[in-house]
Amino acid sequence: MVKLKDIAEALGVSVGTVSKGLRHSHEISEEVTDRIIRKANELGYIANSSARNLKTNRSYVIGVVYVDKSRAGLGHDYFSTMLSSIRDELSLHGYDFTFVSNTIGENKLSYVNHARYRRCDGVIIVTADFKEPEIIELVESEIPVVTIDHVFNNRSAILSDNDEGLEQIINYVYKKGHRKIAFIHGEDTAVTEQRIASFYKACETLQIEVPKDYIKEALYHFPKQAGLRTRELLQLKERPTCIIYPDDYAFMGGLTEIEKHGLKIPEDISVVGYDGIFLSRILRPILCSYVQNSTEIGKQAVNRLLEQIDKPKSFIRKPVRVKGVLQEGQTVKDIH
Amino acid sequence: MVKLKDIAEALGVSVGTVSKGLRHSHEISEEVTDRIIRKANELGYIANSSARNLKTNRSYVIGVVYVDKSRAGLGHDYFSTMLSSIRDELSLHGYDFTFVSNTIGENKLSYVNHARYRRCDGVIIVTADFKEPEIIELVESEIPVVTIDHVFNNRSAILSDNDEGLEQIINYVYKKGHRKIAFIHGEDTAVTEQRIASFYKACETLQIEVPKDYIKEALYHFPKQAGLRTRELLQLKERPTCIIYPDDYAFMGGLTEIEKHGLKIPEDISVVGYDGIFLSRILRPILCSYVQNSTEIGKQAVNRLLEQIDKPKSFIRKPVRVKGVLQEGQTVKDIH
DNA sequence: TTGTAGGCGTTATCAC
DNA sequence: GTGATAACGCCTACAA
Q1: In principle, which of A62, A223, B252, B294 could form an S-S bond with B81, CB 3.0–4.6 Å?
Q2: Which residue stretches of B127-207 are H helix?
């Protein structure tokens, strides 16, 4: 690999001059700068990031924590879109990204220490168990951190607007005449809590009565469980006219069950998903779903993080909400 | 950040000793090693990978090229599963991974140079335009490279068994009595070529006649186009009894079109997908599809690459085929 | 068994 | 405007 020294020797100048010239320092004359750059290209010079990091104490690497709880690997639309967006936005700013895990080879290495080892300038926590001590350790460390869909006290976070999501859904199905609305929510997380609270609040405002057995729990992204819950709902004496699912994938389990009962969507029963994944728009009927703006969330996460890295002093840490949009689709019938 | 020197001073030994002690060198007495490790933990020592890389000329970072041609970001099941698998397998061996793009900030930087800048020990090309000069440059560089689903002369590659995939599909639908088999294949790539060749070969062997207008092209992962091609097929005087799609997502477009024509699957027409994505198993009827073993492909890619890095001399570069498996599903009717 | 010292490639601070 | 030179933190011969 050709290095600064090679260019310096070829040109009969010093290494320091080459270093400055390559970075267009105004200390160096235009003519010399020009010769340096030309020679660098000629020799195919590429800087050594390790040496540079060592000296400058900046790696231009951002760590990403992505712990897959939802049994979907990177294949969960909401998160994979976000990751793409994070990657692209980082790249735009000259940063690379690397996954931060809590193992390295045989050895256990906490998230913080992994990030420290790679000298990450900052970390984005996309998914993780936010109650895990190691995650908390990372958040409270000296490394700038942005979390997604979870707020730590006095830290930056980007939030998909879960309150508004459910509110919009309820308002929409209400407008379509539904009063018997069942809600299958996901497993217990901060996000789920918000959605449930928001569900009840919206119902209260609209004076919708919610029987206890209209509220069910099923794992996110797990069609089978949602299917079982759907069956329970369909067997109720007072059947709901509309079912809200934890997410679009989970809905697929409900779909099967609904068809088993010989019911048609939306003629016999209305359904609503969450996420607005690619699939939801491909399906017929198009699924009514709240589309989270995961691209924007990723972008915001990057920009907030870089801001924090660049001006650690003046940076104000606060949660940012990113709104989604209701995709009305064709699965909610007007039953007026 | 605490460094070797800090430990050395705290213990009254030399930096060299600490360095060796931490790596359990047999040069160092057990007692001193013990004290060193204890002190290191006490002080929370974490090595600086940049300094280490600089010295050892090994980064333990693998670059991944993932250029999204299929308009799906990381959201394409086949690839996202593979990426998860690559990440996990690398982590198992003490490697991290970073995406290698051909831009960095404002500036254009070729893939090779990006990988060189980060001193990647090797690169896995997951998706890319393999005809692009920059990709070829990367493959022909000094950096160990493994490609997926594309073979460069005398380089390592991992291949999903596209030949066998189509052969198995054809044999299966033949067994079910189908003779009028239409094939909507993807856009022109090496993979597509293989599949087409394999399709014709299997048909020939079974003496199935393939009318020209039974063969159509539609972009991968693009339901709308597959839908249009499906319509054309359904309007033929001599309608096929079975349609093979480029992939499971593309099939979704076909599904809509088939339903528009008032046809039912599989009663009125049989269909086959490709990939065996999560969704294909959730759908009812379960989609007949060839399930590519993307987890295994990712794993193989990592292991082949690491082998090549560790023993560059003795390593034999050759393509590795990874078999998939036919998911029979419920969308191919027995029409005997 | 432990210590010393040079150097990996870069940047930055001084002199000149 | 340019050139020495000293770090950055680590590893590794080689010396003690």
Answers
A1: B294
A2: 133-139, 162-175, 190-205
Distance CA B101, CA B113 (A): 10
- Mark A172-210 as b/e (b = at least 16 C-beta within 10 Å): bbbebebbbbbbbbbeebebbebbbebbbebbeeeebeb
Query: Are residues A220 and A142 located together in one domain of the fold?
Result: no
Which of chain A's residues have a Cβ under 8 Å away from the Cβ of B287?
Answer: none
Whether A330 has its CB under 8 Å from any CB of chain B: the answer is no
- pLDDT tens profile B141-162: 999 999 999 999 888 999 999 8
Residue A73 has pLDDT above 70, yes or no: no
The list of chain B residues with pLDDT below 70 reads: 69-74
Strand-pairing partners, residue A184, are A216
Q: How far is B187 from chain A (nearest CA, A)?
A: 20
Q: Domain tally for chain B?
A: 3
Neighbours of A134 (CB within 10 A): 16
Q: Identify the domain containing residue B74 by its residue range.
A: 61-158+294-322
Tokens, residue A146: 């942005």
B74 and chain A: CB distance < 8 Å anywhere? yes
Q: Indicate if A170 and A285 belong to the same structural domain.
A: yes
pTM: 0.92
Closest approach of A123 to chain B, Cα-based (Å): 14
Judge if B82 and B20 occupy the same domain: no
- Using an 8 Å CB-CB cutoff, list chain A residues near B106: 94
Please check whether residues A14 and A83 belong to one and the same domain: no
Cα distance between residue A146 and residue A132, in whole Å: 16
Per CA to C1' distance, which residue is closest to C8?
A: B55
Spatial distance between the Cα atoms of A293 and A160, rounded to a whole number of angstroms: 7
B167 in the same domain as B284: yes
Same domain, B167 and B257: yes
Q: Which two tokens stand for residue B298?
A: 């990712």
Cα B120 from chain centroid (whole Å): 19
Q: Average of pLDDT values for A100-110?
A: 84
Residue A29 belongs to some domain of the structure: yes
Report the nucleotide nearest the CA of residue A52, measured to C1'. Answer: C10
